[in-house]
Amino acid sequence: MGKKRTSKYKKHVGKSPGAIVYTGEKNAQKLFIESFDYGPDFINEQELQNIDEVFKFKSTDSITWININGLNHINEIEKIGAHYNLHPLVLEDIVNTSQRPKIDEYEDYIFVSLKMLYYDVDENITIEQVSFVLGKNYVLTFQESEGDVFDTVRERLRAGKGRIRTLGSDYLLYALVDAVVDHYYIVSETMGNKVEDLEDLLFSGNVKDDLSQQVLSLKKELLKVRRSIFPLREIISRIQKSDSDLILKKNLQFYNDVYDHIIQLSDSIDIFREMIWSLMDMYMTTISNKMNEVMKVLTIIATIFIPLTFIAGIYGMNFDNIPELHNPYGYYILVGNYVPYFYWNDLLF
Question: Is the pTM value of this prediction over 0.70?
Answer without folding.
Answer: yes
